[in-house]
Amino acid sequence: MTEGASLDQRVTELAEVASFAPPETFRARARVRDASVFEKADRDRLAFWAEQARDLDWDTPFSTVLNDAEAPFYRWFEDGTLNASYNCLDRHVAAGLGDRVAYHWRGEEGEERTITYAELLDSVQRFANGLRDLGVGKGDVVGIYLPMVPEVVVAMLACARIGAVHNVVFGGFSVEAVRERMAVSRARVLVTADHARRKGRLSAVKSALDPALEQLTDLAHVVVVRAGGDAAEPCPMRDGRDVRYDDVVAAAAATCPAEPMEAEHPLFILYSSGSTGKPKGIVHSTGGYLTGVSYTHRLVFDLDAERDVYWCTADVGWITGHSYAVYGPLANGATSVMFEGAADYPHPGIWWEVVERFGVSILYTAPTAIRACMRWGSEHPARHDLSSLRLLGTVGEPINPKAWLWYHTVIGRERCPIVDTWWQTETGSIMIAPLPGLTETKPGSATHPIPGVTADLVDGSGQSVPEGTGLLVLTEPWPSMLRTLYGEEERYVRSYFSEFGPRRYAVGDSARRDADGYYWVLGRVDDVLNVSGHRLSTGEVESAIVAHEKVAEAAVVSEPDEVTGEAIVAFVTLRGGAEGDPETEAQIREHVSTRIGKLARPSRIVWAEELPKTRSGKIMRRLLRDAVQNRELGDVTTLNDPSVMTALRDRIASGG
Ligand code: 6R9
């Protein structure tokens, strides 16, 4: 039997095991080995958070911990001042750690760059001065639309250094998504790339953006990073507006002292999908956010900054990238791997080659990636020496037990605890997760809230549900919570604090709590889809489909997918009752791709003469979901015309 096959057999054997204690070798050296940290946090939560915050370097120490006078607008450490880039860079260099590697970067074609803390500090100071030279000041919004190149970190920290607010847009999102996010946040500068590389192909970024940039009246400058490699053609530059990153840095002064910021000064905006078509501009603060990410990064990943090599595979365009590829690890002086490429390029064993090459000890990734690796086969990881790994993490969606066991066995070789971390763009940092040296894990459960965080399950009327299924709420404010939705205070209150009052944050997920008090997050209760761990809203995808000239109406729902978790099924009614054809289908998918991005493309389109609606005209997505998932239809009595569903079921059965 090959090694891959014997590992697979072991996965099957372990299916009977209900829970896993921390491996003894791990526990013996873990940071946290007993439950006293929970008791300490419970005794005085605010004092506990203040202690975590004091692990950062403050220019002015804070005297108040939490101001909740205007709840749900909470203010943490409000009379203190600090700088996030100082905490991520200067203080480590000042402590003699300038030569420590901040990032081992690996490019798509196997190029490597090693960036030390001292080098990163140098680049950040220069680019911060460069941004100032372009007229950027405290409070200005700077857009960032870059692939996974080191400059993305430089740009984020340079903003933080001068109090500019970054607004990163995921590199896989479309031009239209960039335009919209820049317009609503009134960005003054956009930092982007000439080209991006993906699986051996080069795609133009800057020239594709150009027509959209013309429409942005607040945008004064575009900074262009060379990310396409030496073979890439130079991109067109507009005089007076566009500047090259290399030129900006070369012309800028070398020193730029970090500017102290009020703790509540916004560090960044990150757009995330809400339950309507319009993305939410989630605003994070400086002091509270940095406290949350540095504390959780040490605690949940059991970080030993001197020894560990840590790799978070998330793109910086997502909150996971912000918190656990940039701010958390840098605030803790950790050494990270940054990987530009895809998980299967140039071959499906590349991740394991990278783990071996850099001696990765902590790996943090998503269930969708684990399932893809599972499908490619255990022989790929089996070919590499993965003995450096000591801890594994997952995030983004519920992990199915089979993928958990595969990760545990084939990647972790039963030596590494798995931390299944539940959190959201809004929470800023991890909220529910095991402590790896302490918590017994159950495959598929994120276990318990971490020390300092309090959660509950409630029914629709807000009553606590001690055991069974309910809606997840966080019952006390925490430092890294979102502060507002950019420019939409009322929507902030309505989205998170209207259902259960100003103290209980409504998460939007349903969950189950078992007899041992373990939380099992089941998924979203609103119209938010989760494709490959990425949030998309039904409304967002529907408006992109409806924007196609032939389309009259559309409704999208999800169905379970083995690799991506959820896949999008679109029900589409064409204008004038026209019949759908493969060409229109291809155009619709392309439309979604250009408006939002490739990952939002429907996997199936079902042509619908009519959509199921209530008498008041609301589309009943619930019924569509039941139909695609081949379930008994729920209550159809409120339907205006129940025969619509019969016709649709026939369509679905005949493959659309
Ligand atoms: C960090 C991140 C948040 C939503 C969240 C939930 C789902 C994330 C999870 C999980 C089960 C986990 N989610 N982690 N579900 N177990 N460990 O993913 O943020 O993109 O805002 O998504 O993702 O549904 O509400 P974000």
Key traits:
656 residues; alpha/beta; Rossmann fold; GMP Synthetase, Chain A, domain 3; globular; binds ligand 6R9
State the end-to-end CA separation: 43 Å
Q: Find the count of extended strands (DSSP E, 2+ residues).
A: 30
Model regions low in confidence, pLDDT < 50 over at least 5 residues = none
CATH architecture of the domain at 120-259, by name, is 3-Layer(aba) Sandwich
- In DSSP terms (H or I, runs of 4 or more residues), the helix count works out at 21
Bound molecules: ligand 6R9
Largest sheet: 8 strands, mixed
Average pLDDT number: 94
Described by the principal axes of the CA atoms, the overall outline is globular
Structural class: alpha/beta
Strand order of the largest sheet: 12-11-8-6-7-14-15-23
What share of the residues lie within helices? 25-40%
CATH topology call of the domain at 120-259: Rossmann fold
Q: Per DSSP, what share of the residues sits in E-state strands of 2 or more residues?
A: 15-25%
Cα-based radius of gyration, to the nearest Å: 24 Å
CATH C-level class of the domain at 120-259: Alpha Beta
Domain Acetyl-coenzyme A synthetase N-terminal: 37-88
Domain AMP-dependent synthetase/ligase: 92-477
InterPro entries: Ac_CoA_lig, ACAS_N, AMP-bd_C, AMP-bd_C_sf, AMP-binding_CS, AMP-dep_synth/lig_dom, ANL_N_sf
Organism: Halostreptopolyspora alba
